[in-house]
Amino acid sequence: MQVAAHLTRRIVRGEIGDGRAPSELEISQEFGVSRVVARETLKILASLDIVDVAQGRRVVVRPRAEWDYLSPLLIEWLPAAIVEELLQELHQMRALLEPELAAMAAASISDETLARLGDEIGRMAALEADPEAYLEVDHEFHMEICRAADNRILDRIMYSARWLGTASRRVTNEAPAGLHRATAQHTKIYEALVARDPAAARAAMREHLSNNFSTLLAEKGQRSKRAAKRR
């Protein structure tokens, strides 16, 4: 894992050029590890779609656009600037999907799901001073809505993006009074679902995601200012 992380960062920095990644032998010699470890390193990189490994051929770096950006490993290894770009792209994806998921859920949501969502709203209100615990409830609230929409493909897409979603929530939760505002926005979505009003649910989710995106951009600006001051 350590060698795979190191090689990924070198590829991102452009230190491994010409589309060619190190071979098993080269990894073994450079890092002082066995050929077995070198082989497993390449398997990890291949599983993230960073490289192509074929028997009897050289190891080739894949185009960056094709990497598995939903993997928590890759998110951990990428530089902060790229992660910030991915978080913005995540919000674009959510803005496309989640308002329609909310509308779909409103049309068919069960009383049992509404009861769970109501409990989660109460937990959010109680956890506004605990951002880490809050984000878990926040994630589950959105997944409950996704499951209520009863589309297995969309459910898996949303679930696969959970690591980026957690990273995004950690940023937006830093905003002053951010969690209090988030609870109010989730409550508005919940009320539209209780009313079984697809149009209102769609609008409430769209407003929530728009506010999140504005907060994300604002926090990015504040981080840039703090970094500039440190320099």
From TrEMBL:
<dbReference type="Pfam" id="PF00392">
    <property type="entry name" value="GntR"/>
</dbReference>
<dbReference type="InterPro" id="IPR011711">
    <property type="entry name" value="GntR_C"/>
</dbReference>
<dbReference type="InterPro" id="IPR036390">
    <property type="entry name" value="WH_DNA-bd_sf"/>
</dbReference>
<dbReference type="InterPro" id="IPR036388">
    <property type="entry name" value="WH-like_DNA-bd_sf"/>
</dbReference>
<dbReference type="GO" id="GO:0003700">
    <property type="term" value="F:DNA-binding transcription factor activity"/>
</dbReference>
<dbReference type="Pfam" id="PF07729">
    <property type="entry name" value="FCD"/>
</dbReference>
<keyword id="KW-0804">Transcription</keyword>
<feature type="domain" description="HTH gntR-type">
    <location>
        <begin position="1"/>
        <end position="64"/>
    </location>
</feature>
<dbReference type="GO" id="GO:0003677">
    <property type="term" value="F:DNA binding"/>
</dbReference>
<keyword id="KW-0805">Transcription regulation</keyword>
<keyword id="KW-0238">DNA-binding</keyword>
<dbReference type="InterPro" id="IPR008920">
    <property type="entry name" value="TF_FadR/GntR_C"/>
</dbReference>
<protein>
    <submittedName>
        <fullName>FadR family transcriptional regulator</fullName>
    </submittedName>
</protein>
<dbReference type="InterPro" id="IPR000524">
    <property type="entry name" value="Tscrpt_reg_HTH_GntR"/>
</dbReference>
